[in-house]
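To whoever is on call:

I kicked off a structure prediction for a single chain this morning and the downstream step that reads the tokens threw a length-mismatch warning. I double-checked the sequence; it's 82 residues and nothing unusual in it as far as I can see. Pasting both halves so you can look.
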Amino acid sequence: MRKVTPEQAIGFLHEISGVPDISPQTRFGQLGLDSLGVIEWITNLEEQLDADLDVQKINFRQLDDESIATVLDIIHRHVAEN
């Protein structure tokens, strides 16, 4: 199974959020992504993982208090289970 590293995720999240100094410990909600930004990130993840993410099973708004590293772990588990 392919995985997205925190560094890969951070690079793209920086592009779409404009938030400086993003780290793996940055909370997802601190990025201030609107719905379109979340969709852009999901699309980018799907391309990198070569998988379809079922967004009905992953509620990204409930992940606002989680770190980017934790969100990636959740996504990787989701891909492995499906």
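Update from on-call: the warning came from a stale cache, not from the record. Cleared it. Sanity check on the structure: Residues 35-49 form the longest helix (15 residues).
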